[in-house]
Amino acid sequence: MSDGLQPQTGQSLLFLTDEQLRKGIEAMFFAYRGFTADPDRILTDKSYGRAHHRAIHFIHRSPSTTVNNLLSILGVTKQSLNRVLRTLIEDGLVASTVGQRDKRERHLHLTPAGAALERELSDAQRDRMRAAYRAAGPAAVAGFRQVLEAMMDEETRHHYEAMKDRPE
Amino acid sequence: MSDGLQPQTGQSLLFLTDEQLRKGIEAMFFAYRGFTADPDRILTDKSYGRAHHRAIHFIHRSPSTTVNNLLSILGVTKQSLNRVLRTLIEDGLVASTVGQRDKRERHLHLTPAGAALERELSDAQRDRMRAAYRAAGPAAVAGFRQVLEAMMDEETRHHYEAMKDRPE
DNA sequence: TTGGAATGTCAACAAAGCTGACGTATTATG
DNA sequence: CATAATACGTCAGCTTTGTTGACATTCCAA
After folding, report:
1. Which of A27, A53, A73, B79 could hold B148 in an S-S bridge, CB 3.0 to 4.6 Å?
2. Which residues of A fall within a CB distance of 8 Å from B128?
3. Which residues of B touch A157 (CB under 8 A)?
4. ipTM summary value
5. Domain-located, residue B126
């Protein structure tokens, strides 16, 4: 790890010590538990899992997305996604329609029931996020996002960026 | 989600919009993938999983910890941890010694081989973290940590704080 | 001495990931 | 038009990591 001159040259680089990095790693681990705790509770009651949440979330975010596209966003195999998707379709939370231009594709949408669950889940997750944001303040939130973005894989970041500025 | 007056009244509260919160949620999801990617690769080669990594990490951090203590840090059942611990002990990465004051307890340590794997894993994870920290800068890192800490459950935060200021 | 705490183990199960193989439309390409 | 490639679904089987529940052992403490 050669350390050339930094833009912050002259500033303290103590935030790059192994000790500081370890704290960040542990913070990430512990915080992620909190991050998923509230949706997890809701899902358990309905005998769904985190995988269902992820599918619902991204179908909501990218309505009419194809199976293949969802696959690459989630980073799982089609067999794995298919199992989740099948139950969501059977339970009437997701609708799958044959593509018009390309009839091989299936376009995915949330049904009203699916949208209702999506709202319940994201409300719960946002509540905790909002409390954390409010406690930390806007400057901290900007830093939070910056570090997270820098932590992503290249390919992942493209997915993130693509979704970033699409309005709700 | 009604938002009453905030302590920061007068300041911009745009960072608390649902849109901003959603971006934070997605950033968290995508970043966590990157966060675990490098150790995961190393572990797959050795046919271990993320659970083994977590056990090794916290045994390293809290040498001589008991099984019960590790249980509450990791937030899993003893049966689940036991399976992981058993393979690590069989493979000679972790040593379990009967407690002196309380002989019911088992105290856990890393063997030299376990410490070597721990180093390999945390080096990989720190490399990515360091790159992210460096790209974002010290102010962003401070904010990052603040938001993560505010996101934790109460009980989880205690574990985090307890480990926070113990030197390497 | 008796009750409870800490640990370990057996069995059974579920969620969610994986690989590999195969079938079936549909589209693209030679 | 024939063939190749793509998108999707599904079957089978396996792995990791979590869960409950039941039960035994050991040992501390009241």
Report:
1. A27
2. 151
3. 30
4. 0.91
5. yes
